[in-house]
């Protein structure tokens, strides 16, 4: 049991590092001319195909197992649209923000989930949770250089990038809330296949309207996009789900906060991106606050696999 738990922690940690790599590598592709939207499209299609084949083979080998609580079609659609929106807004924010800033802002999603659950249940969160959420909110303000903006000083961050990162956090929160229902109906892997399937279908329509997918037809960019889909999507999702089954959702959620730290290190080494002292303090507040939120969340609410 102890060995299995250790392997679970290792698997979730590896997934977090690979997701951090994905955000940094996506910025490299975007700097070379790749479209954030087409990267998002390709990632959804690759994840749907690879995970779909895995689930199909597994079900044929073991026999499909029914679930007691089927998810309605509109929940599945909303789940898939949440995946699409979270990915798109995240890559859009990475295009104009330091990768670590974009990831940390998106990581406020569990806090938004806690607030929504408290509102829906008409039950105020504990003082510990309120303190954690306030810390995370202050951290985001410091990350986004809000003090400089209010004082009229120049800021190094693009407003549209901050807005996209905040939008990705709300989409990620929607993904968490709807994903709980889909997971109960289809299991973790089956839920991801359905979600990425809906997202991929939507992107086909969007791309048909937009016209020629220049990024996906560029021989210098396509191998990198495929690498992003495999190494930063399929592999880490598989590792996270495997580890999740061994250490539980709360622990997995806390361990996954390793991603922002990994992203900051990778972005510094690879993209020469660094954060100021105030931003580092803000990032620390967010990570600590969300770790507290994750530790307080009920085990009945699964810790979601991050979407970067």
Q: What is the tally of helical segments?
A: 12
> What is the SS-derived class?
mainly alpha
Instruction: Give a count of the beta strands, DSSP E runs of length 2 or more.
Output: 0
Regions with little confidence, pLDDT below 50 for 5+ residues: none
Compute the gyration radius: what is it? 19 Å
In helices, the fraction of residues equals: over 70%
Give the N-to-C terminal Cα separation. Answer: 30 Å
* Shape call: globular
What portion of residues belong to β-strands?
Answer: under 5%
Q: Give me the strand/helix succession.
A: HHHHHHHHHHHH
Mean pLDDT: 82
Task: Please summarize the sheet with the most strands.
Answer: none
Number of domains: 1
Structural summary, described in words:
The protein has 308 residues and is mainly α. It has one domain. Helices cover 78% and strands 0% of the residues. It is globular.
Task: Summarize, please.
The chain is mostly helical. The protein contains 12 helices and no strands. Helix 5 crosses helix 8 (159-210).
Helix and strand arrangement:
Elements: H1 2-31, H2 36-62, H3 73-94, H4 99-106, H5 109-121, H6 127-143, H7 146-150, H8 159-210, H9 222-247, H10 249-255, H11 258-271, H12 277-296
Helix pairs in contact: 1-9, 1-11, 2-3, 2-8, 2-9, 3-8, 4-8, 4-11, 4-12, 5-8, 6-12, 9-10, 10-12
Which terms summarize this structure?
0% strand; mainly alpha; 12 helices; single chain; globular
């Amino acid at each position: 049991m102890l060995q299995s738990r250790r392997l679970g922690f290792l698997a979730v940690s590896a997934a977090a590092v690979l997701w951090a790599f994905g955000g940094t590598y996506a910025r490299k592709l975007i700097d070379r001319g790749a479209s954030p939207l087409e990267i998002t499209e390709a990632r959804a299609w690759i994840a749907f195909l690879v995970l779909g084949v895995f689930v199909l083979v597994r079900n044929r080998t073991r026999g499909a197992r029914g679930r007691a609580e089927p998810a309605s079609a509109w929940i599945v659609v909303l789940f898939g649209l949440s995946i699409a929106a979270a990915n798109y807004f995240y890559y859009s924010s990475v295009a104009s923000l330091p990768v670590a800033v974009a990831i940390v802002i998106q990581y406020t999603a569990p806090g938004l989930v806690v607030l929504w659950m408290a509102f829906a249940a008409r039950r105020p969160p504990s003082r510990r949770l309120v303190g954690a959420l306030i810390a995370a909110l202050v951290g985001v303000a410091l990350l986004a250089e809000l003090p400089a903006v209010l004082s009229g000083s120049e800021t190094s961050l693009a407003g549209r990038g901050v807005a996209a990162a905040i939008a990705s956090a709300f989409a990620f929160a929607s993904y968490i809330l709807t994903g709980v229902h889909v997971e109960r109906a289809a299991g973790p892997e089956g839920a991801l296949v359905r979600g990425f399937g809906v997202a991929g279908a939507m992107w086909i329509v969007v791309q048909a309207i937009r016209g020629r997918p220049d990024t996906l037809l560029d021989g210098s960019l396509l191998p990198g996009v495929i690498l992003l889909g495999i190494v930063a999507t399929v592999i880490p999702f598989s590792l996270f789900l495997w580890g999740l089954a061994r250490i539980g959702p709360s622990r997995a959620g806390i361990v996954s906060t390793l991603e922002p730290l990994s992203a900051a290190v990778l972005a510094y080494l690879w993209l020469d991106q660094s954060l100021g002292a105030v931003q580092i303090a803000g990032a620390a507040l967010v990570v600590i606050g969300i770790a507290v939120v994750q530790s307080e969340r009920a085990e009945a609410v699964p810790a979601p696999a991050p979407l970067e």
